[in-house]
Amino acid sequence: MELWELKVKGTDLARYNQHFQELALLFGRMFSEEADKIEKYVGGLPDMIYGSVV
């Protein structure tokens, strides 16, 4: 499923944000809690950003 494999391509964080939001709306029922949504979003960030977030 596209949502589970979504990653930032290069440095295009704006496109990642937009695409994640679109997919999260379509598959909203898959995220039973807000924490699940946040975990998936952060997991798709590049390592250099991920380290600053967690």
TrEMBL record:
<protein>
    <submittedName>
        <fullName>Reverse transcriptase domain-containing protein</fullName>
    </submittedName>
</protein>
<keyword id="KW-0548">Nucleotidyltransferase</keyword>
<keyword id="KW-0808">Transferase</keyword>
<keyword id="KW-0695">RNA-directed DNA polymerase</keyword>
<dbReference type="GO" id="GO:0003964">
    <property type="term" value="F:RNA-directed DNA polymerase activity"/>
</dbReference>
